[in-house]
TrEMBL record:
Positions contributing to ATP binding: G285, G286, A287, G288, T289, G290, K291, T292
PROSITE patterns xrefs: UVRD_HELICASE_ATP_BIND
The protein's name: DNA 3'-5' helicase
Catalysed reaction, written as an equation: ATP + H2O = ADP + phosphate + H(+); Couples ATP hydrolysis with the unwinding of duplex DNA by translocating in the 3'-5' direction
Pfam families for the chain: UvrD-helicase, UvrD_C
Record organism: Rhodococcus parequi
Amino acid sequence: MANLVLASNSKAMPKLDGSIKNKVWAFIEKLSADHKSPGLHIEPIKGAVDKRVRTGRVDLNFRAILFKVDDKFGDDPTFIYMGTWPHDEANKLAERSRLQINPINGVLEGIIGELDGTDDRKKRVVVPDHSGELDRALKTAPQGYLAGLGFTLEDLTDRLGIDPAAASEALTAVDEDAVMLIAERAVGWQGGALLDLATGTSIDDIRIKYGLSDAPVDENLDEDEQILKALEQPASKMQFAFIEDNDELRRAIESDDFAAWRVFLHPEQRTYAEKNYNGAFRLSGGAGTGKTVVAIHRARNLAHANPDARIVLTTYNKTLAQSLKSDLQLLDPTLRIAEKPGEPGVYVGGIDALGYAVLRQATNLAETAQSVLGYASPDSINSRTRSSVWRNVVAEAATGLDPKMATPSFLENEYVAVILANRVTTLEQYVKVARPGRGVRLSRPQRIAVWKLVEAYRRQARMDGTLSYAEVLALAAESLRLRTDAGADHLVDHVIVDEAQDLHATHWALLRDLVAEGSNDLFISEDSHQRIYGQPVVLGRLGIKIVGRSRRLTLNYRTTAQNLHFAVSILSGAEYKDLEQDDESTAGYRSARRGPAPELVECDSAADELDEVASQVKSWIAKGVEPSSIAVLTRSEAVRDQFVRALGERDVAARALDDKPVAGDCVQVLTMHRSKGMEFSRVILAGVDDAHVPSSASLKSVPDDEQAEALLRERSLLYVAASRARDELIVTWSGKRSELLGSSTQ
Ligand SMILES: Nc1ncnc2c1ncn2[C@@H]1O[C@H](COP(=O)(O)OP(=O)(O)OP(=O)(O)O)[C@@H](O)[C@H]1O
């Protein structure tokens, strides 16, 4: 059986329709079973630049381009499948396609004729320019952008291994945009490295990021052996993937771009998905940098490494958990999905569902409830406390508490972050407990006043026999703690959590108590710039020690550089702290894709804005954009519903997206909160005027001391919303534009 390697083809290959994809699959299946089968018509190309290139017959009109690499120790060669093209084009391209081992760093590079912008390269020898001629020429030319950052041609070619022609072109590029254009055409890893250079990343750091080798080729090996060895380099895996499993191969071929996230990880993503960590690890990174992708791969890798391992993959809410689960199953349909946390396999669930699932298994509920709530638990854990209870408690009580503190949101935060987190059950405990991280200081009389309200809240819930989500989480955590204190094993072996920036104290207590401190215990994926709920927490105070095990992803796979630039501009000027209380930065954020600049549209009136949004959506649909890949995002549910109605009245099929997925191919209208973790091709942020964004109602509901934090959340919310667009982004408003848009006029 021949070995098969797939090359990433998203840039070069034409879109194939379903029937051709089936034929490609049949061709590849045959090839891996018997590469000598005459029906494949595997043929070398006369006069080809690379003697390894072959074309094979997919059908009468289409041919695949392959490289055949022989293994002198085994009978079977390795075929590298580069893609499928119409017959004549395939032959023409194949003639000028080649594989090369980068002479500086040993990365394998596959070049498909002119489609990689390398049509004239066959005459060019890829060796570094030691003569310094180009460098001298560049010194006399006007200074380019990369040279302005201090890079020389020698840095790019001799130290990094960028193709000399691309490197000299990149050095003359006048701005970041021009570097991007060159990066877009560059082969494999080189495109990414050029973008890194443009953001000022040092050569040494880039070498580390891509795992580049100092000893590129082993002269004792013949050329084919060198190629097979080069395939193992982390940066080669950005372009080439060995796929052993037939089903996996079929899935990869059937998806348009080989579902790149499943097959071609960035070397950094691969490291974080595969590496063993001796304790909790934190992966941060901008929106769209692939944190969720890493989390999913990591869950799969841990499950493969030990099929008996009990793994929990969790995230902020139910809908995000559903999409984690379906992506995990896409990545590996054979993976064992656990029904309950604690069973072998991967349990996937929103964090609240995880809390319930743990508590349902608890055999120490009475003891647990006594410890957390100060009274025996209700008969059932399934009845949830209504959100109106805090409101009623506040309305009925005359506590003398500052009205800004006598609000449901302040009390709920205090209850979760201080009272539940510390298992406070009496006033004596509450007046003494430390409240680090809470914006508002409370005097002793104020604490007494707050406690009265807490007691009233608990009394009501006890009478009703209900629990809040946060109480369930706190109970679940405590039941686990009591269990392990009594000598039992921890419930699970590995926890992976996505969207962790939004978790509060009782969420963290649950995660901490689920798994023993140790190897690969907690993998935390988060972006503090996207924190849109609750107050920031500090992991160290919650028993989670990261101690140097934290890394950041910066390459955005989702959106264009233009959209990214706009989204990041929303954050500018504001200061953010990460989960370890260090400054969070957007330095180095970049995207490899380009597209139109976001449009900011000021409308004359609310009615004009409804018309504007409808006509924009219609024009996209008229151009063939699928309606379900278009989203209109609003700050509130009321404005969302207004846009759903308005679109319907203007003959655009649109639905409000809330808890349930939208059925049918229609435009999705959702709140900015609901858009968390999602992505769409075209996005309109509607109603971004200064009354709605930031939401004056939300700001009014928090005490003065927490205003700055609340405003930061509003800013983050707009950043989350703006970073959902893959291709095009439009922002509309009527009246005064939101101050969070800054002075951007894109
Ligand atoms: N290596 C990759 N190759 C191709 N596409 C990728 C890769 N990694 C991530 N992506 C794609 O980029 C997009 C963003 O990825 P993902 O959702 O994992 O990012 P994220 O960092 O979790 O984003 P957010 O913080 O906004 O939720 C997805 O469409 C994903 O499929």
